[in-house]
Amino acid sequence: MKRCIIIGQPNVGKTMFALHFAEYLGLAKARIAFAEAGGRRWEAAYSMAAARTTLTSSAPHHTRQLQSLTLELPAGKGTKHLELVDTSGLVDGIHPDATIRRAMAQTLAAVREAKVILHMLDAAALGAGGAVDTIGEVDYQVAQFAQLRGGYLVLANKMDLPGAEDGLARLRREFAGHRIAPVSALHKQGFDEVKAFVWRHT
Amino acid sequence: MATRADRPSNPDEVLDWLSEGRLTPAEAFALFRTLLPAERNAGAVRGAGARKARGVSGSNPAEAGDRRGRRNKGAAMPGRGGPVGEDSALRSDATAGDDEAAARAGRLHAVLDELDGLIGLDSVKQLVRELQAFVEIQRRRAQEQLASEAMALHMVFKGNPGTGKTTVARVLGRLLKEMDALPKGHLVECERADLVGEYIGHTAQRTREHIRRAMGGILFVDEAYSLARGGEKDFGKEAIDTLVKAMEDHKDEFVVILAGYRAEMDYFLMSNPGLKSRFPIQMEFPDYTSDELLRIAHHMCEQRQYRLSPAASRRLLRILEQHADGNPYLGNARFVRNVIERAIRRQALRLVTRRTLTRADLMTLEASDVWEAATG
């Protein structure tokens, strides 16, 4: 099974993207395998709507473990399996909460084995140009690390919000040389480019 | 560990440090960048080193050493390479025979190993072993001037297509050659169309031609029951008569194997009472179970330097089980071989447009390849 991992800072919309992208690829029911950093594993099935309300939130660090969705996609006459892995957000600096630190370590471990890395950034927050720079040191390091590997795609999320176009322009400057796909996880916009990319690299 | 390093030395340590709060995620990624490619490169170097080492041992360093030594002494190079070469050059003719016998025993073992390497076919292997023992003892008895039975090694192979009849026949030919029971041990395959002629007298001529070619080896008549199909006036009967006559005339000089479906062969032997007594050895080739077929598939992949992914393996087993319920004449191992060969082509089609390919990609047959190969 090919692993496609979604990483990025907290609250950029990774979980929402994972759920909606899975739905876009034809998944009707979200059957999610959770894997906590401590080793605990469990599974739960949600309807898409229930998954959205339970798993996503407007507060950062809602996701604290790996959450994977297995997709069975038709490929020619057979099927191919794709594991879409949603991860806990990566922060700059050392997080005080040990649980979150462990979750981040788990994210990195999963990155090692991933075939495709989807790196998500919040284009709207970038465009708004707040006091705090929303492109973190971790984002630059991820880009540098991931360019050594095959399937690396930058997702500029929240394109539906005002100011996102400016954010996208800035991303294109900062991440020049990397492929950038503008998307709106909430409204399922721009998914076909992501799909084509994931398809080619799995 | 008493003192800890100021920097993790491998990717796993990076993860530990990250969860202990001694690294930021950004630092962790930076370290990954330096450590992970290093890890991969190290693997590549290790692989190359191992290949190199194997290459050296393959070209036999002892031989190289020997040559150097001999050149220093000013001795002539022996004709045969290797450390044994030096000894045999000094040996007298009397011991050369032992050498030959040892080589023969080695070849015999190789053939038996090959037989054991065939998957399933337990009853067949048992029977071949029996035969081997019988031939060997008859030879020893002859050496001791004891009455030895004339060896009638003609056989009937009964089983569905693709159950290993031809393969076993081929191994058997080599086995009998190594045991001195047959001078050449080659296999001449033929079927009704090869033996039966178009006009009166033609059949005997064609059959004799095949027998002449099989002299010193094995004449393998596939689907032999079809020779008796046409009734009294059919030329098939003439072919059988010619065959039987040749078996009498050239008793120990060649072996005839009649092969075919079990039910048809039973009927064939029943309708020709003379035949049954002339073919004392009857081997049954049972159909393979799906597990055996899966092992055959893995073996075939291995031979071709491919491997089945676990999912592909499960998929294939399911396909084989479905087929087992349906058609008993489906071809057994031949079906598996066709599926594997087609899957290899499907894999090529799947990979040819890819930009980056790893060694593993090139070797692995995925479930989709197998599925398309079996259904498409």
Describe this structure in words.
The complex is a heterodimer of chains A (about 200) and B (about 375). By secondary structure, chain A is of the alpha/beta class. Chain A has one domain: Rossmann fold, CATH 3.40.50. Chain A is built from seven helices and eight strands. Chain A has helices at about 15-25, 50-55, 100-115, 125-130, 135-145, 165-175, 190-200, and strands at about 1-10, 30-35, 40-45, 65-75, 80-85, 115-120, 150-155, 180. An eight-stranded mixed beta sheet of chain A has the order 3-2-4-5-1-6-7-8, sandwiched between helices. The N and C termini of chain A lie close together (about 10 Å). Chain B has three domains: about 10-60; about 105-285, P-loop containing nucleotide triphosphate hydrolases (Rossmann fold), CATH 3.40.50; about 290-375, Helicase, Ruva Protein, domain 3 (Orthogonal Bundle). Chain B has 17 helices and seven strands. In chain B, the strands form two sheets. Chain B has a five-stranded parallel beta sheet, sandwiched between helices. In chain B, strands 6-7 form a two-stranded parallel sheet. Chain B starts with 10 loop residues before the first helix and ends with a helix. The model of chain B is unreliable at about 40-90 (pLDDT under 50). The interface between A and B is medium-sized, with 36 and 32 residues.
What's the arrangement of secondary structure elements?
The complex is a heterodimer of chains A (202) and B (376).
Chain A: E1 2-8, H1 14-24, E2 29-35, E3 41-47, H2 48-55, E4 66-75, E5 78-86, H3 98-113, E6 116-122, H4 123-128, H5 137-146, E7 151-157, H6 164-174, E8 180-182, H7 191-201
Parallel strand pairs in A: 1-5, 1-6, 6-7, 7-8
Antiparallel strand pairs in A: 2-3, 2-4, 4-5
Helix pairs in contact in A: 1-2
Chain B: H1 11-20, H2 25-58, H3 61-73, H4 83-90, H5 93-117, H6 122-143, E1 155-159, H7 165-178, E2 187-190, H8 192-195, H9 202-214, E3 218-221, H10 235-249, E4 255-260, H11 262-271, H12 273-278, E5 281-285, H13 290-303, E6 307-308, H14 310-326, H15 332-351, H16 359-363, E7 364-365, H17 367-375
Parallel strand pairs in B: 1-4, 1-5, 2-3, 3-4, 6-7
